[in-house]
Amino acid sequence: MITTDSLRCHLGYNVKRAWDVMRADLSESLRPFELRIVTFSCLAITIENPGLRPSQLAEALAIERANLVVILGELEERGLIERKPSETDRRSHALSATPQGRMLFEKAQAAAMAHNDRMVSPVDPGVLKPLQEALRAIGRLKP
Amino acid sequence: MITTDSLRCHLGYNVKRAWDVMRADLSESLRPFELRIVTFSCLAITIENPGLRPSQLAEALAIERANLVVILGELEERGLIERKPSETDRRSHALSATPQGRMLFEKAQAAAMAHNDRMVSPVDPGVLKPLQEALRAIGRLKP
DNA sequence: TATTGTTATACTCTATAACTATA
DNA sequence: TATAGTTATAGAGTATAACAATA
Question: Going by C-beta distance under 8 Å and a sequence separation of 6 or more, which residues neighbour residue A81?
């Protein structure tokens, strides 16, 4: 039998293996809505922060502005979000979700919640909260 | 201020953000040894399981056999591992690390451990064990 | 028939440099 | 000078189909 002990002691290895499973399951859960994980995330933050600028969205989700351009283009082309000219800075845009975008997000969010329930099911409920907090703390270690 | 509450409640979002930080830090830690995360991992499992077959290594690390071919080619070309013909199955190979491979791995493993210490530093030591176990449990949810 | 290693390919995600128009 | 959005591009990582040799 093959062992992986020398990697299992690394927290990062377990995080990556868990993320692989979660990513695959979430991608499948969002497929019926023709949303990828990143487009779903952008839609979520745009709905939560109407009027925000692309650079703020990129910073919030830790994705490059350059990569965000095509993502927002995809969402706008599908009529899920709008890029309006900013009233205070003519270089920038104000992002907002359309009614269709909000409706689609509600359904997708329900599917994402069901996915989350599946993923969390093997975890002792008592450790879930400290688990989330530990992961957030690591995520804040940004160089 | 931009908020991300609608995503922060998803465990997967926090797992992904943590993994992004860990991946970047580990990649930097392995760079001096000219190892990528995946080549480091293959070297580790090969040393831990001398004589294993590529298909077993692929299964252990959850990577496609097709992608493993080039990875093993890279490691063999650098003289870190060997692909010997299997004595029991002429289709297959027996993988083993060379002395140079073992020496390089020891140094890289030390760097990876230092990386792990950095990542774990903001986590309450008491929750680390259940945290690891929770992540492993999620990783086992494979469909 | 099924499995092993392999080749080739494509698709996603990520990272970087450089351009333009504004500030 | 610096910033916002944008374009183009390159590199990883990942996924799939098909093949020859062997079981």
Answer: A42, A43, A46, A72, A75, A95, A96, A97, A98, A101
When pLDDT is averaged across residues A56-85 and rounded to a whole number, the result is: 97
- What is the Rg, in whole angstroms, of the alpha carbon atoms belonging to chain B? 18
Q: What is the pTM of this model?
A: 0.96
B35 CB-side CA count, 13 A? 25
State chain B's mean pLDDT as an integer.
97
The pLDDT of residue A142: 82
Which 8-state DSSP code applies to residue B122?
A: T
Assess B63–A contact: CB distance below 8 Å, yes or no: no
pLDDT of residue A46: 98
Mutate to test the interface with B, among A52, A57, A61, A141 (most CBs of B within 10 A): A141
Contact B12 A24 (CB under 8 A): no
Kindly give the pairing relationship between strand A81-85 and strand A93-97. antiparallel
